[in-house]
Design a protein that fits this description.
The chain is α+β, with helices and mostly antiparallel strands and 213 residues long. The protein folds into two domains: 2-68, Orthogonal Bundle (Arc Repressor Mutant, subunit A); 72-205, no CATH class. The protein contains nine helices and nine strands. The protein has helices at residues 2-13, 32-44, 72-83, 91-97, 134-137, 142-154, 161-171, 176-185, 188-212; strands spanning 19-22, 49-52, 55-58, 60-62, 66-68, 87-89, 107-112, 117-121, 125-131. The chain is elongated. Mean pLDDT is 89; it is low at 203-211.
């Protein structure tokens, strides 16, 4: 056991602080029980932090504030890469990413085709990975996907002109093809907004091109 402990500790030390890693990363070193015992001991020693079942953090430490956690998005992407899973951001997180809200969500929900789980980030924040239907995982555009789930959070008929303007500006960075594709998957009222903003943006782009000519 001591030998496995030393091997695991040395491997972790070679990682960059702030790195998220997994118990399965060490499966070649021993049995699952032995590895879990070592990782549990390292957590008790405050050498690493357990985020969720089988998921750990080699933390950055500040003299003034203690553990510095990666962002929720960084943790989510690390888990997605490991599981080769897709993620769909939802709710207040989608609003925040689009600049429609300054609220920092304490509970972030991602739809996924990976394993459902809850990951703790610090003392208060949690990331929830929820299994979803294939339809939601078929969205193509990173921006248009955020728009769809941000509008779902805002609710039908509740988006202000300011919010719609910000969404329109965000969609400049999305391809027309992705907007059209994702509008088909969205609820009808959201599809209407997407296509209307797309049409408006296309007209502005064409006008600007003519002025340059």
């Amino acid at each position: 056991m001591q030998s496995i402990h030393k091997q695991i500790e040395d491997i972790i030390k070679r990682k960059r602080r702030g790195n998220v890693f997994f118990a399965s990363d060490f499966k070649s070193l021993g049995s699952g029980d032995a590895i879990r015992q070592v990782l549990s001991r390292l957590c008790k020693e405050d050498f690493i932090v357990r985020l969720s079942n089988g998921i750990y953090l080699y933390p950055k430490i500040s003299k003034h504030i203690g553990i510095i956690y990666p962002s929720i998005e960084e943790i989510a992407k690390a888990i997605a890469r490991k599981e080769k899973a897709r993620l769909i951001p939802t709710g207040v997180f989608a609003l925040n990413k689009l600049g429609l809200s300054t609220q920092v969500p304490m509970k972030v929900v991602f739809l996924t085709d990976g394993a459902p789980r809850v990951v703790k980030v610090g003392k208060k924040a949690t990331v929830h990975f929820k299994k979803t239907v294939a339809k939601y995982l078929a969205f193509k555009g990173s921006i248009s996907t955020l728009v769809v789930f941000a509008l779902k959070e805002i609710g039908k008929g509740n988006a202000t002109e300011t919010e719609l303007q910000k969404i329109k500006e965000a969609l400049i960075n999305e391809t027309p093809e992705n907007i059209t594709h994702d509008a088909v998957l969205a609820p009808e009222w959201i599809a209407e907004i997407l296509l209307k903003l797309k049409k408006s943006e296309t007209s502005i782009t064409k006008s600007a091109a003519k002025e340059q000519d």
